[in-house]
């Protein structure tokens, strides 16, 4: 998962990677085709992207780049620009110019490839100018992208280089440090404005009418919420509009939940110079990760051109241009663009198949999902050959829990008998980092009879391969909910993440399905949403999707439908149409049934909002009025319906009541249904004290049912009291709570530190707390001391600092709970770029170790040397020092202008502490016959004999191989002895034995 410098967005270069351009192709002749729909060219013969519309005379041109990547290539392969032309958008007759220009043939100073988003405008002199981002062949700039300018007397060329060099780069017309791509141009009379930029940096610069001479200096644009790239400038009725690809991702984002996708947002201003005010989103995320707008008025109608992945064989790097109408809300000031309705409107896939996951509601353990992933990918029935993160659901955060789960919920019971799951990985199992297939997993279903989760019966197995769908069959069960629980792969201390591209649930297949006769009123076009499907002795109401119908006159007709999960084909029903006024003699009240649907929990609770359907049946077959009340509130009546849905929200206990009244005025008895909701998971807290974890949990609604815990990678066990460390090592305790509604909390963790009371020796890095001056989001500071020396580490197994801005120095630091005596350290660097590039990650110029002396950082004394290898550990020894903190300060390598990042795979710190001696000593003065003596006793409590030396001011004594006590009384030769200290030396350790003064009478 090399997220280090790869960004899957239109108009981006993969920094530090050399991409060989495709062999130059001959310019293709234009041809005309007709396709009145989107994408404009949808057959997959040519993929186009980055549309830039232009009106010339009565013709609409859309200039594009050409996507030439293979179906599994995750990179922009763009070697030329082309265009589409039409005189009637609705008719869909287009002339395609597949190859109007190539970077290396149009600009002698440009390299081949990377033909990114450009724009054609008509200049004040009537000629056409094409602003094109290309890569300079020879440049000293850190980023070689530049904007060239071509000119032509015709919208289709021939085109020639207008300048002989870049119009804009990191060197001209003035220096900048951004990537100079995605130009958009506004020609307003004789004033020319150029806007350009990406990666959240947008600049503008005015030019004279010659299109080449700058006016003033380039300036930055602010006020664009979530701006990422792809700006497009235009004017309407003296208001200026700046549309752009936005990406302020998150679960509550108005733009996109996933940070690989983009919406088209826009801002307005009263002048081309700004200031700009954000106005919202005009186009929601499309099927490709990137989005790129071109907005223009043509023959009185406004249009937006954009690209998608919707053509045959399309993908994120095989995009195709589409065009749709833009409508305006002129009641606002300034006028706003209404949200664009993408055409064709996506229709439900009604292909008969066993999979029913596409109709399920998805919930996951890691909500909110990390923004690089997209939970919608789980059941969108799209599997790509080389997916990007938003093509999957994933859990990677750099600190991954031992278990995750995915759950599907249907509104009605379904009969299921199989599963197909497609795992994704970028690391092998057992590494404990990155994304790996789970160590094991299982499928469970909600057993309504026991109100508990149960393992599916007799599963065929739970394979964990990552090459295609992994199949599991099991004995058929009936349920409204199914979940997959994944035990993450681990190296014994850390856990890999889990990722799933698609998870299908396969319905059990009945012998046949016979649709019942249907009765509707004239004018009624909605048919019943379910049909009865029989499985042995069990009959279920299963969703059905009917062909559209019209019921203008009484009579009968057949209709075909697709039953969810029924793979054998369509079903056919006979529809009888009746008159709504046929009520004579009707004295029978309708019957009413209240049916709840939601995420069912235990003990009658639901774990989500609950939809209660009040469904009426009348003996004449007509529609009725249904009235519903929630918790004694105001009644809501719906006329001329067969059912009414009411949504109950909010944790707690509720009551829904309803009545139905038929056309003749017959009213049913009131039906009532209690609804209990607890949608909030319990919250547990772990407190570490005396190397034990005490867990408490709370739940505000249904109450806590149980708490479980696991030590390191061990099995889950019921919590009954403080969890003590099993030994002196560092341990991770996972814990989670379940409430009485069945809500299971995502596991939390607490760390029991290692017991540092004993003398320490060897590498004590793993028991330190690591910190750093900066850590890239895809790397992990915890990789420094994960005690793993992997030959080819993944990004999560590295501490690294790559970012757009890289300083000259970075540091990493270890902290311990107490001072430790250190004698050496070693670390191994990681690199992906050569020294001298000033880019990527390179081996540093040097580094040094420092220790904290209690007040300031000090260099270690007499270091043996500081190597900078990325293939072997760089070991340094030094004069022993006792400290609770060590720091390595690293000097980054440079090209003279910019600095490379630095990265370390592992950092070891070596302790060398002697065991505390088992010998104790006492000294006491005594009087014997008026004379003073000093009695010294050394006691060996150890199991081995030791040599002991006793020294005093009055003499010394050596004892060999003492197993118990060494005693000596020293004569003072005086009647008095002053206070002092005797010393006892054993095994290189000196023990002081103080004594008091004494005068003998």
From TrEMBL:
- Where is the secretion signal located? 1-27
UniProt entry keywords in alphabetical sequence: Carbohydrate metabolism, Glycosidase, Hydrolase, Polysaccharide degradation, Signal, Xylan degradation
Its domain of life? Bacteria
Under what name is this protein listed? Bacterial Ig-like domain-containing protein
Family as reported in the entry's similarity comment: Belongs to the glycosyl hydrolase 43 family.
An example Pfam family from this entry, by short name, is Glyco_hydro_43
Bacterial Ig-like domain span: 524-566
């Amino acid at each position: 998962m090399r997220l280090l410098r790869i960004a899957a967005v239109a108009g981006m270069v993969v920094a530090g990677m050399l991409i060989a351009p495709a062999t130059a192709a001959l310019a293709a002749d234009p041809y005309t085709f007709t396709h009145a729909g989107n994408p404009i060219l949808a057959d997959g013969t040519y993929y186009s992207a980055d549309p830039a519309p232009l009106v010339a005379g009565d013709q609409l041109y859309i200039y594009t780049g050409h996507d030439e990547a293979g179906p599994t290539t995750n990179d922009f392969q763009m070697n030329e620009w082309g265009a589409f032309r039409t005189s009637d958008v609705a008719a869909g007759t287009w002339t395609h110019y597949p190859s109007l220009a190539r970077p290396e043939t149009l600009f002698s100073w440009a390299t081949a490839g990377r033909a990114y988003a450009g724009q054609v405008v008509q200049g004040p002199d009537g000629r056409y100018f094409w602003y094109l981002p290309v890569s300079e062949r020879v440049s000293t700039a850190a980023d070689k992208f530049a904007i060239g300018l071509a000119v032509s007397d015709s919208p289709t060329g021939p085109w020639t280089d207008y300048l002989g060099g870049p119009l804009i780069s990191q060197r001209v017309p003035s220096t900048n440090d951004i990537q100079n791509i995605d130009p958009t141009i506004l020609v307003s009379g004789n004033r020319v404005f150029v806007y350009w930029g990406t990666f959240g940096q947008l600049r503008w610069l005015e030019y004279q009418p010659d299109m080449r001479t700058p006016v003033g200096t380039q300036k930055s644009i602010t006020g664009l919420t979530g701006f990422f790239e792809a700006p497009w400038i235009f004017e309407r009725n003296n208001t200026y509009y700046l549309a752009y690809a936005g990406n302020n991702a998150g679960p509550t984002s108005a733009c996109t939940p996933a940070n690989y996708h983009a919406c088209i947002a826009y801002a307005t201003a009263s002048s081309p110079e700004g200031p700009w005010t954000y106005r919202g989103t005009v186009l929601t995320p499309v099927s490709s990760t990137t989005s790129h707008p071109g907005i223009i008025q043509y023959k009185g109608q406004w249009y937006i051109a954009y690209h998608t992945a919707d053509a045959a064989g399309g993908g994120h790097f095989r995009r195709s241009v589409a065009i749709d109408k833009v409508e305006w809300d002129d009641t606002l000031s300034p006028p706003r663009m209404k949200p664009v309705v993408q055409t064709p409107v996506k229709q439900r896939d009604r292909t008969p198949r066993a999979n029913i996951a596409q109709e399920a509601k998805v919930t996951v353990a890691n909500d909110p999902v990390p923004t690089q992933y997209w939970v919608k990918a789980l059941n969108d029935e799209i599997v790509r050959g080389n997916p990007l993160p938003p093509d999957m659901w994933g859990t990677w955060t750099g600190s991954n829990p031992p278990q995750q789960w995915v759950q599907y919920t249907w509104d009605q019971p379904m009969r299921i008998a199989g599963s197909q799951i497609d795992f994704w990985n970028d690391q092998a199992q057992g590494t404990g980092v990155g994304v790996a297939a789970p160590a094991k997993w299982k499928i469970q279903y909600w057993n309504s009879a026991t109100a508990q989760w149960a393992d599916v019966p007799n599963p065929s197995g739970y394979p964990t391969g990552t090459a295609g769908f992994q199949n599991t069959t099991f004995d058929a069960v009936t349920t409204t909910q199914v979940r997959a629980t994944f035990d993450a792969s681990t190296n014994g201390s850390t856990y890999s993440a889990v990722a799933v591209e698609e998870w299908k649930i396969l319905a059990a297949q009945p012998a046949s399905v016979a649709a019942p006769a249907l009765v509707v009123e004239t004018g009624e076009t909605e048919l019943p949403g379910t049909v009865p499907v029989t499985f042995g002795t069990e009959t279920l109401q299963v969703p059905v999707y009917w062909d559209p119908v019209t019921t203008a006159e009484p009579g009968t007709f057949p209709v075909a439908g697709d039953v969810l999960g029924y793979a054998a084909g369509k079903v056919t029903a006979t529809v009888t149409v009746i008159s709504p006024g046929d009520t004579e003699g009707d004295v029978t009240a309708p019957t009413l049934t209240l049916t709840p649907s939601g995420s069912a929990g235990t003990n009658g609770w639901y774990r989500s909002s609950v939809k209660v359907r009040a469904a009426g049946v009348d003996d004449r077959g007509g529609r009725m009025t249904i009235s519903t009340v929630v918790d004694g509130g105001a009644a809501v009546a719906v006329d001329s319906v067969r059912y009414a849905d009411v949504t109950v929200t909010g944790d707690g206990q509720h009551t829904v009541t309803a009545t139905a009244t038929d056309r003749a005025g017959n009213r049913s008895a009131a039906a009532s249904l209690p609804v209990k909701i607890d949608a909030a998971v319990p919250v547990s807290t772990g407190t570490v004290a005396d190397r034990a974890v005490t867990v408490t949990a709370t739940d505000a609604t249904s109450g806590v049912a149980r708490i479980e815990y696991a030590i390191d990678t061990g099995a889950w066990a019921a919590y009954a009291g403080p969890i003590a460390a099993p030994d002196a090592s560092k341990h991770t305790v996972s814990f989670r709570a379940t409430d009485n509604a069945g809500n299971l909390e995502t596991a939390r963790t607490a760390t029991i530190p290692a017991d540092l009371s004993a003398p320490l020796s060897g590498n004590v890095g793993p028991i330190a707390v690591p910190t750093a001056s900066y850590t890239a989001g895809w790397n992990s500071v915890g990789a420094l001391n994960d005690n793993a020396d992997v030959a080819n580490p993944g990004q999560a197994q590295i501490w690294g600092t790559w970012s757009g801005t890289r300083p000259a120095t970075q540091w990493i630091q270890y902290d311990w709970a107490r001072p430790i005596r250190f004698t050496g350290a070693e670390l191994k660097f990681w690199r992906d770029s050569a020294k001298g590039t000033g880019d990527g990650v390179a081996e540093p110029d040097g580094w040094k170790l420092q220790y904290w002396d209690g007040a300031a950082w000090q260099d270690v004394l007499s270091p043996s040397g500081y190597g900078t290898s990325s293939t072997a550990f760089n070991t340094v020894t030094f004069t022993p020092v006792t400290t609770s903190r060590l720091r390595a300060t690293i000097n980054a390598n440079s090209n003279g202008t910019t600095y490379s990042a630095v990265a370390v795979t592992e950092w070891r710190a070596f302790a060398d502490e002697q065991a505390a001696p088992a010998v104790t000593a006492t000294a006491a003065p005594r009087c014997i016959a008026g004379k003073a003596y000093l009695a010294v006793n050394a006691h060996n409590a150890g199991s081995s004999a030791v040599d002991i030396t006793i020294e005093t001011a009055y003499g010394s004594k050596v004892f060999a191989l003492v197993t118990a006590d060494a005693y000596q009384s020293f004569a003072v030769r005086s009647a008095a002895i002053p206070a002092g200290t005797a010393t006892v030396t054993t095994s290189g350790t000196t023990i002081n034995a103080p004594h008091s003064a004494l005068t003998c009478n």
